[in-house]
Amino acid sequence: MKKPGLWLALAGFLGIVAVGAWLGNSWFGTYQQAQQVQSEVRSVETSLRESQWEALPDQVISLTASARVLQARTQQAPWRLLEALPVIGPSAVAVTTLTQSLASIGEATEPLAPLAQRVVEGQIRRPDGSVDLAALEQAAPRLEVLTDRIEIAIDRLDRVDTDAVRPEIGEPVEVFRDELDGLLPTLRTASTLATWLPGLLGADGPRDWLIMLQNPAEARGSGGFIGGYVVARADEGRLALIADASSTDIAAEPIPADSAPLDARETWGDGLERWGAFNASPHFPMTAALAADGVAAMGQPVDGVIAVDPQGMSSVLEVTGPVTAMGKTITAQDAAQFFTVDIYREYPDSLERDEVTMALVRATFNRATRRIVDTEDDGRCAACPHRGSAHQGVEFANR
Length: 399
Fold this sequence. Notes:
This protein is α+β, with helices and mostly antiparallel strands.
């Protein structure tokens, strides 16, 4: 009769083989799923790099689903055992952390995919050209969730000691963390804009905005000499120019300085009453209040003031593409150079310089709003009342 110990040893050996096979099969399945996630991440990166926007929504949804599967695998006992092992354990923990972060961000990104698709297909505007404010209102809380998820992911990834893990794992952790760090400021801005834009664009009723062009080539405290302005009316997502004026048009128009604090009036004197000098102070809220009072005194009350410099114009032109008015074309690449340097050489006459400036500003605004407002050949707003003779980066203040 055989000894019981032999059977026990054989049973133990078979048990170890079975557990090993179970662990090996589980680890291999996790490895295969990780390869799938890595492949889908590369597809998303390619679409972003090559501006293949149409493919992105479906790719994000697919990547999120794959990341969820991988996350579930890293929560199972075999992977938890792997995390507890010496040497390889920190790498397994890093994979778990990276997977959790990717799945969490993917889940927050997925609800934004339909809106992203609408933006890609140009459907964020209604047939009349107005912006779909309801879509922006829906996006705002989703962007806030995504921003929070990314902040949490950055914190998690910061705690991974990449020096203690295998290079093929540590490098993706560092790259992903750095990319999230770079993306976070943009997302915060987008979240803020989505929260505030519906109100700014007239969701709660018409709002008139004074948009001033500041030229840093002629220094002033708030950012530069006011080369002119337009007044835009926002109503239920629709934008229209309702007034404009060049610096020449308004040079002789006094600004009521009563809204300025006493110390400012004592410091700047009657300069606060002149359009060429009223923005000597770097305190933009005071400058905006004076500007609003100034246009109100000319019969055009406004709800808020926005100041745009040539760099801000360049940012708009990156979206609109080049614009042409009065025979002059400007692009995102040369707008800042033109408004701060070249315009003085090409148009030495101040009246012609004002006319060209305002024509280009109007043309840019009209292009940005898809020419919602009818324009004349020189980019002039056909519906706007023009003041005066025939020569005709961003700060914001709400009233």
